[in-house]
Amino acid sequence: MRITANPLRGQQFPAALLLAAAALGLLLANVPTHDAIAQVLEARMAVPGTALDLTVSEWVADGLLAIFFLVVAIELRHELTHGELNSLRKAVQPAIAAGGGVLVPILIYLLIAGPASPTAAVTTVGWPIPTATDIAFALGVLAMFGRGLPSAVRVFLLALAILDDIIGIVFIAVLFAHDVDWLMLALAVLAVAVFAVLSRVLARTGSSGLAVLMGVIGIIAWGLMAVSGIHATIAGVLLGLFMSPVPAERTRHALEPTVNGVILPIFAFVAAFVVIPQVAAGDLSPAFWGILIALPVGKIVGITLFGWLSLQLRPRGTAPALAFPDLLAASVLGGIGFTVSLLLAGLAFESDAAVRDEAILGVLGGSLIALILSGIIVSLRARHHRAVAAAHG
After folding, report:
1. Are 303 and 375 in contact (CB under 8 A)?
2. Where do transmembrane segments lie in this chain (predicted)?
């Protein structure tokens, strides 16, 4: 009997599902059914006896996405301890390239929407938005179009995207905290510590009852973080980083299909549920143009330039870990900023719905440009490598 692998554990299908969900959200936001769906997304759902009172869309961004960040943090921890970032030698090139992939988009964004802009007081705060690379999308496109590329391209892209996630997580934690309740934050950290200790006991005993208790403690940690003023997704990050390795990997394996098949598509749908402004191109916010240009252009220039500089650090006479054309292909993939960029757009312009919606459209447009360019460039590089392999085969 042939066993079919779960497509939700792959890269291609989840990426296609994510894109379809975003397209559906954008479509339904701009048809007559908009009001009915908007009412559902704006409906409030409170937890009796707690300070938690969020809209449906906030439950998605603060609650469901915390599970995604839990899985990302587990993968990040693995890469930092046993994977592609477990030594300075392995991390230096993608780290330098990731730095360029953050700094250059910020610079481009600020040149367009910063102090020189007539709306700078509103739009300047959006500078973190074009700094993120979407792991699921980037690896999905690489899997679709990159057959024949050296494995070093995937390794570099994975390390780059993970480092981008670290930076994005720091931005969320530091820049978008508001009216912090230090007591609630301390209790959230205490809950994470209890969760971490229980995970180590679970690794030794394998008790199913303990696993259930950990789930309860994890939810409590999330709730405390949510009411503390720190974005609730940070709870998912902390839980994933401090969980014991064995139960952490089991948790990641168990949650991966749900995250790829349910959580990320729902978030993509909700985040992309944006009415396209009926205005002339010249009337669009500088935030829109800043993101639209900074994501694809900033990532390509930043990752390629800084990645090339990092190549010069290798010992004299040794071959580069990544050929320059392959570095360029990886940099274009880095311009696909989706999940974290959409979250950052919602946080940066939370108080201005019009700019927020245009910023989200900028993320969608910039990511689409990068997706198309990466499909073309990655396909050309893969064809080149397949031809070289055939010539030497």
Report:
1. no
2. 54-74, 95-113, 125-143, 155-176, 182-203, 210-242, 262-280, 287-308, 328-349, 361-380
